[in-house]
Amino acid sequence: MGLGLSKIPALFGFTIILKYPVLFPSAVLYVLSIYLLPIVIVARLSLAPTNWLAEKMMDYSMQGSVLVHLVLLYAIFHVWAGISDYREISLKFTLIAIMVTVSLNVINGYMGEFSCSHPGFMALGAYTASIFTVSLFVNDSQFGQALLPSFLGPFVFPLGLILGGLVAAVGALIVAIPSFRTRGDYLAIISLAFLFIVKSLIENLEFVGGPRGLSSQPNWANLPTVFAWTVVCIWVINNFVRSILGKALNAVRDEETAANAMTVNTRRTKMVAFMFAAFWAGVAGGLFAHVLRYVNPSTFSIQKLAEVLAMVYFGGLNSVYGSILGAVSLSLLGEALRPLELFKWIVIPLLLILVMIYRPTGLIAFKEFDVKKLIRPRQRPGDEV
Amino acid sequence: MRCSMSLLQVERMTHYFGGLRAVHDYNLRIESGQIRGLIGPNGAGKTTIFNLITGIYQPSEGTIRLEGENLVGLQPYQIASVGLGRTFQNLLLWRHMSVLEHVLMAQYSRMTYGLIGAFFGTAKRKRQESEAEEKAYRLLELVGITDLADQNVLNLPYGDQRRVEMARALAIDPKILFLDEPTAGMNPEELIQMMEIIRQVHKEFGLAIFLIEHRLKMVMELCEMIQTLVFGEVIAEGTPEEIQNNPKVIDAYLGKEAID
């Protein structure tokens, strides 16, 4: 290429800058000319007509408007990810990270308890969904012949994911029963123990491959599937935390005695929310296994936990926006800083420490995710669509 | 039936904290629409009695009945849903929630849309929540803080925070309202406003009110019957005049201080 770049920068040129600092100006120029300038120009030029369109759509139907926005967003993802497999898989993992982070925020942010078992719930979901699909649709040495024709696969796949989520929710119930008798650090300790139990349980189960892991999942977790699940996950969780039943979590967190005296069944509220969050972690785990098409127990270790917790606290507590931001920025940063190898794990924690010092509750904390506000017409330039 | 059964009836309630007897042989009857007061020096066990009746503590002995239904052994949220609203002496507000959200939250048990409604935003949920919001605004208007609805509670002055607690307690549709020192820390002007609110609430809903108060002026003006509690035991019970003139009360509680 003319700028001296060997190939198209996969992630906005970060990787190239870190690998070959000499190419810094070219990479910046590339980002400017391919992303920044066109986006700004298009946004400015199309501001008036799109605002007019947005207004018309709002008049017509809110759902329709949301759908159009989502389709356009997906189209952008599709084009961007179409360039290389690396981009596509990074994007899928980022979307899955969003699901995991938003669901963990329900526990650690909205409910204000500290749960460490989210990777464990992901593992339960990943293995359940994998066993479901592999045993039903794949000729596998472990699980024998396929039981159903493979054309049914994509239709049955959501069932497998939901099953994975439900198993994770049952796991959550096991954690919740002893933990929510009182407040305090019990949940943190019990959930950490649960994470280790799940991991060593899977390591010792021969029929799912033990520590070697389980592979040959069918390739059904394509970009539209992952995108659709992420959207549904955010939509349902956001619905929940904005309802009075969901806001009860905040009441329990801020002052449990008062919540109890104001007719809130605090124990049930906490248990339901915990299982709900675990369900989505399980679904995300199922998707994860099918994106990678391989799953092993060591994926769901303490390091995964640290990653997810970092995303939640970096992005912001009690906020769906925050979790999306945290998951996206830390996933991208993780990929972008890959050339730094070991030093990556110095840079990212350092960033976290800075955020904790200057914004103790995270970047965008305590902000409601209001779809209506997001898609209504605006006067400011720089909006997409 | 009505004449024989009081709205709230507490009989021979006793409570121990470990070996310490905090409340001894406490009896109470509140008829509907009645305002009753509970006075006593610090540490006499007034708030403990509130916490026992509202289920935060379980009494060691005794019975508590609301309209004949037993309340002993129920969880606080269950007791609240059958119609026992309360405020707290040391303001237990939810620090990250707005005024409106406080009043909405107290209608939790009226939300019957279930988890399906919460997850998918069904029409039933939208209807119930908008009804709850209407009711919340009515209550905020009653206590006079409609314009603060979207404020975070921590930004409000002390007197307004007390009003939020009041509106919140009313939002559960109580049959009887427990007020734990509703004017603590208020200036004289706020005090008069609060008394006005209590009178208005009493008139509008015909509520029974059970009041703990340090300011005697307020208790004497508002209450029909007053109990005096010292070291967990009721030493005197009667109308404001009787209490004021009771030598035991003057001795134990008022001392030689004049009533302001």
Short note summarizing the structure:
The complex is a heterodimer of chains A (385) and B (260). Chain A is mainly alpha-helical and 385 residues long.
List keywords for this structure.
heterodimer; A: 385 residues; mainly alpha; ABC transporter involved in vitamin B12 uptake, BtuC; two-stranded antiparallel ribbon; 16 helices; globular; B: 260 residues; alpha/beta; Rossmann fold; 6-stranded mixed sheet; 4-stranded antiparallel sheet
Write a structural description.
- The complex is a heterodimer of chains A (385) and B (260).
- Chain A has 385 residues and is mainly α.
- Chain A has a single domain (70-375), classed as Orthogonal Bundle (ABC transporter involved in vitamin B12 uptake, BtuC), CATH 1.10.3470.
- Helix content of chain A is 70%, strand content 1%.
- Chain A is built from 16 helices and 2 strands.
- In chain A, strands 1-2 form a two-stranded antiparallel sheet.
- The longest helix of chain A has 27 residues, at 85-111.
- Chain A is globular.
- Chain B has 260 residues and is of the alpha/beta class.
- Chain B has a single domain, classed as Rossmann fold, CATH 3.40.50.
- Helix content of chain B is 39%, strand content 23%.
- Chain B is built from 10 helices and 10 strands.
- A 6-stranded mixed sheet of chain B has the order 6-7-8-3-9-10, sandwiched between helices. A 4-stranded antiparallel sheet of chain B has the order 2-1-4-5, covered by helices on one side.
- In chain B, strand 7 (176-180), helix 7 (188-205) and strand 8 (208-212) form a beta-alpha-beta unit.
- Chain B is globular.
- The model of chain B has no long low-confidence stretch (mean pLDDT 90).
- Chain A binds chain B through residues 236, 239-240, 243-248, 250-251, 253-255, 257-266, 272, 318, 366, and chain B through 54, 56, 75-77, 80-81, 86, 88, 92-97, 101, 104-109, 111, 113, 115, 117-121, 125, 129, 132, 168-169, 171-172.
